[in-house]
Every structure is written in C-alpha cells, then in structure tokens.
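Page 47, continued from p. 46.
Same chain as before, 123 aa.
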Amino acid sequence: MTINAELYGVVSEHVLDVPILETDDLVLSMQLLDFEPGVAIMHCEVKNWSLRKYKGFIDIWVEVLAALEDKGIRHLLTVTKEEDDKNKRFAEMFGFTFKGILVDDNTTEEYAIYELETKIDGS
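Result:
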C-alpha cells in the first residue's frame, strides 16, 4: 500500500497536539485528527533506553492504551522514515504493525506507516 503524502499534509493542518507522558527517558504525545474521530498519530521521543526501561514501560503502555480506549481513541498510527530500522523495531515492540509506505511527492522520501488498535481486552 502506498499513501499519497498530500493526505499527510491535510492531516498536519487538522490536528490537535496532546502530550501524554513525559519522563527523563521519553516523551509520548499524540495528534488527534479533527476529521477522523477515534484516530490519533502517536509520537515518541526517546531520550534514554534500555531493556530494563522497556520492561518498566510495558505496564505504563497498557495503562495508556486503556485510557485512550476509554476516551474513544481506538486506532493509533505512527510514521517513521522507511530506512530507520531502529524506529520501525521500536514501533513493533509496542504492538504496532506495518501497514504501508507514505511517499512525499516533493522529496520522494519514503515513510513507513504503522498502526495499532487500542482494544487491549480483545473486544
């Protein structure tokens, strides 16, 4: 699946940035899409990371997903540069699955799109 970058341009003009969590190790935020209720684009800035921190963050991530689901956010997207294998693996570590490539028509740069449903209880 290839997604036209013009759509992402529309997305970037119609969003509300919402901080979720900020620690010494990472900043987690999302963008709510005003034209697509229940969908958010997730952003994570990692400052310090290790296996121990990952294990500690899993419980926090489950709480974040439950809180988002309670607020009606059921579909999460994240975007990373196609060649950035480290960020792609990071998204997959938290349950995101690859859905396609976004191509910037101006630069021809490719971005990998990942998605996650927030239904953590299987419902």
